[in-house]
Design brief:
The chain is an alpha+beta fold and about 150 residues long. The chain has a single domain, classed as Pnp Oxidase, Chain A. Helices cover about 25% and strands about 35% of the residues. It is built from 4 helices and 7 strands; from the N terminus they run H-E-E-E-H-E-E-H-H-E-E. A 6-stranded antiparallel β-barrel has the order 1-2-3-6-5-4. Strand 4 and strand 5 form a beta hairpin. The chain is globular and about 40 Å long.
C-alpha cells in the first residue's frame, strides 16, 4: 500500500478504530484499541496517523518510553498499518511548540471521526484528563486494501 489515502479510507470504513501497539519495558507488545485518523504532524507536516490519549493511560507512559508505535485499522479483510516514531503533544510532555493544544486535540478527535455539541466542554474534559495528542509518523505503511 503506497499512501495514506488508502489508510484513511480503511480507517473511515472501519469506524476509525485502530489497534495501537507499542513496547513494554521487557520487550513485550502492548496493544490497545483507540480512535485514530490520518492527520499531518503539526510541527513538521510529516505524514502521520493521530489519536488523543488520556494522560494517565499506561499506553501513554509506554509511548513516552519507547518513542515508537504502530496503528492498525481494519475493515472486513482489508487492513492498513502505519508504524514509526511518535510525537507527543500534551500538558505533561515538556515541549512548548507554540501550538493551540485545545484546537489540536479537537482536530485529532475530528480526524478520528469524532464530533461534539459543546467544544468548550470538550476542551475542559481534555484539560482535566491531561489528554495528549499522539502522532505516529508514517515511516512504514503496510496493508491489504482494495483500490
Amino acid at each position: 500500500m503506497a499512501d495514506l489515502e488508502k489508510v484513511a479510507r480503511v480507517a473511515a470504513a472501519g469506524g476509525n478504530l485502530a489497534v495501537l501497539s507499542t513496547m513494554e519495558p521487557d520487550g513485550a507488545v502492548h496493544a490497545s484499541l483507540v480512535s485514530a485518523g490520518v492527520l499531518p504532524d503539526p510541527i513538521d507536516a510529516a505524514a502521520s496517523v493521530a489519536a488523543v490519549i488520556r494522560g494517565d493511560a499506561r499506553k501513554l507512559r509506554l509511548l513516552r518510553a519507547s518513542g515508537q508505535a504502530a496503528l492498525t485499522f481494519t475493515h472486513g479483510y482489508e487492513w492498513a498499518s502505519v508504524s514509526g516514531l511518535v510525537r507527543l503533544i500534551g500538558p505533561d510532555d515538556g515541549f512548548d511548540f507554540g501550538l493551540d493544544v485545545p484546537a489540536l486535540l479537537r482536530a485529532v478527535f475530528q480526524a478520528a471521526g469524532g464530533g461534539h455539541d459543546d467544544w468548550d466542554e470538550y476542551d475542559r474534559v481534555m484539560a482535566r484528563e491531561r489528554r495528549c495528542a499522539v502522532f505516529v509518523q508514517a515511516n512504514r505503511v503496510t496493508g491489504v486494501a482494495q483500490g
